[in-house]
């Protein structure tokens, strides 16, 4: 089993796994209109993913951490050789969203393991909210308190 980590603001904890944020705004691995949930393979990577997108360090309060348990067989792993050369550029290239959209449409796996742009030797996972196994995965979610060490800021 793989433990996955997702950090969200407390005010969004009830909708932490509905995929609405990615559906409304898109992401590196999905286009606007496509629902997906992004999680990290470690708590520290989940923290880095929050910090790298933070515009104001004063809002680093009132977050919660969720852990999930994913069976390794439910994940398709994208290796660096499978990615376009510009996969880690900012802003995200259209090619990565196209890869993710094709994967979402295929229902071939519950999760897509992709390298983190921040730490490429570590993995993030995209979860397919429309996959038949998704409700079972969400039942494994456990909520944890989290606070950020002020030295990170």
UniProtKB/TrEMBL annotation:
It comes from the Bacteria. Residues 16-141 form the RES domain. InterPro entries: RES_dom. This is RES family NAD+ phosphorylase. It comes from Vibrio splendidus.
């Amino acid at each position: 089993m793989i433990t996955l980590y997702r950090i969200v603001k407390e005010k969004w904890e009830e909708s932490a796994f509905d995929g609405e944020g990615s559906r409304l705004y898109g992401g590196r691995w999905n286009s606007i209109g496509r629902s997906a949930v992004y999680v990290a393979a470690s708590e520290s990577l989940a923290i880095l993913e929050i910090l790298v997108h933070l515009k104001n360090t004063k809002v680093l309060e009132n977050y919660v951490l969720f852990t999930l348990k994913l069976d390794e067989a439910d994940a398709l792993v994208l290796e660096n050789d499978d990615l376009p050369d510009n996969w880690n550029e900012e802003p995200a290239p259209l090619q990565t969203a196209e890869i993710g959209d094709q994967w979402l449409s295929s229902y071939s796996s519950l999760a897509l393991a992709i390298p983190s742009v921040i730490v490429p030797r570590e993995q993030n996972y995209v979860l397919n909210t429309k996959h038949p196994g998704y409700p079972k995965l969400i039942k494994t979610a456990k909520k944890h308190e989290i606070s950020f060490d002020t030295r990170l800021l």
